[in-house]
Amino acid sequence: MSWFQPKSALFWTYCLIAFLGLAALILQLAPVAALTWRDILAGLPFTLATLLVFGWLVMHLDRLRARKRIRTPLLMGFLWGALAGPGIAMFANDHNMRIIQNLAGDAFAIDWQAPISAAIVEEAVKGVGVFAVAWLARPMVNRPMHGLLLGGCTGLGFQVVENITYSANAGLLSAQDNPATAIVVGIVRLLTGITSHWMLTALAGIGIVLAVARSDWSAGRRAQVFVLFYLLGAALHFGWDAPSPANIPIGSIVARTVLYLLIFAVVYTWVVHTERQWFRAVVSWAVTRGIAPAGELSTLISQRSRRRARQADRMSGQHNRRQQIQRQRVLLDWVQDTGALTLAPTQ
């Protein structure tokens, strides 16, 4: 997929909204950043660590190199999350929270305006970006793993820039020329980043991509899948931002983290199952047509089977582990290319 699609109105809409979002972010953050730029710099190492750690994690979840063919969509998703998302979300959240305060009163708003607004606004902004990229990348982006990766990258872009805004705002709470508060905020954001935007939008992205790509499903089924995964991400966002009991704030965070990881593990297990089904179908297709032998391709289905295959090769005289790994990656990429060109997406 080429990132430049001049004949697509959706592509130009994507570019315009990303530009406007960036402009809105700069206009809203600049006055604060002018006062707290030292705090932003103090928090920058933790922001970069967030990008590297969770960027690695999102890519590591892709066990069969599905990302190989969709690098451009993943980059476009990340850019949407980083450029369009935070600026629009900051503007909309401010207005939403005032509306909630006016409708429900100050006592209710203190605890609930932030989780309600964030679950609505931020998930919607990120979800629109996932939808736009998924639509532009049809039929390249069409499997649950594609949705998880695209949503994860989009959420990660949002998460990284949001961390910068937190560092800037932390400076307003700290003593003059004292970056300690920003450093603490950076550490907390890094530690709690495991259940942050990358995860929430990865879950929503599964439903969005399947709703866009699965033209062989009925409209009702596509709507059900979209609602299930999108609302799951939004509900987890609301639950994370909801106030903790005053007597057990730390315990509540730990409990939520464990619960969220368990929920994600269940969904991820299903996604991996669908990916392996698709992979086996491609291998069977290639074998029946005499394009490739079954033996070596069948060993690629998991990390464990690939490791066992390398060990068997070394016992037969092949000792170069780097070459073995490289060959397996080449074969995985070949399966991804072949499957994308020959098989329709399967559940």
From TrEMBL:
Membrane-crossing ranges are: 12-34, 40-61, 73-92, 112-136, 148-168, 180-213, 225-242, 248-271
Alphabetized, the UniProt keywords read: Hydrolase, Membrane, Metalloprotease, Protease, Transmembrane, Transmembrane helix
Tell me which PANTHER family the record gives. PROTEASE PRSW (PTHR36844)
| GO BP of this protein | proteolysis
Gene Ontology molecular function terms on file: metallopeptidase activity
* UniProt name for this protein: PrsW family intramembrane metalloprotease
Looking at the record's lineage, which domain of life comes first? Bacteria
Coiled coil location: none
Could you say which residues form the signal peptide?
none
